[in-house]
Predict the structure.
Amino acid sequence: MPVAAAIDEFLRGELSVQEAPDEGAWHKAWHDLGLHTLPPLESALRGGIGADRLSWAFVAGYQGAIRYVFPSVPHQGWAAYAATEDKSKPATALTTQGDGFLLNGHKSWVGQSRHLDHLLVTAGDQCVLVPAQASGVHLSHRENSKFLNAMSQGYGDFEAVEVAAGAVVDSDHMREFGRREPRFVMLAGTGYLLAHLKGADQTLEQDLISLALALAMVCESQHVVPKTLAALDRALQTAVARFANAVDCNALPDWQADHRLLSMYSARIQERAAR
């Protein structure tokens, strides 16, 4: 199992945290380490282990989830799933043109906006894959974000972007991404905790390893009982509290602002399990 192999490498000291003070450095490290060539699960965990801050752990999980759900996305470069509409403007739409389509619209959140190669853009109940450098694609960037600020976050404007018929993605994948993203980000976050624990608590280290293996299973499972994912989420929240007692978190870049990433999906997960 690739995830178990990655954990073994980490325990042997063959995987280490990468110093990446900005997104450009993390983008370079991502490709230098060959994470873009790995299966999604493995890139998420290895990326989480290599992340020196939680912004990069999110990127690792996010990229892993995108590649898992949308296998047509090229491996080289980063991709973003642009689904959040700018409600002050007309809804994003596809219109037929010849054998393909034209994409027009606006999205109010695009992750990794300064280092993107590919965009998955939703338009109603459809989703299309377009190059970030395609004619008519305009990305702008927020100056500051209160959460995951190291990661660039911006806006997408699409003006008569030509879309080939083959670039339209099955709508089932759109729903699937919402289910997979939390699991992959939780896996990457667990890798981050494991790497930064640095053996300070041997019992917690073993618990994090067990949690990573369990999360890897649910990342790929087609049918996960909501209560199972809720139990793993509770285990992660307990691990975060124990981690904070074992490690000087003030020494971790952006921890105070970004540690809520590790509980970002908790309310939704627990609510679904309680139904």
About this structure: DSSP finds nine helices and eight strands in the chain. The radius of gyration is 19 Å. The mean pLDDT is 96. The longest strand covers residues 100-111.
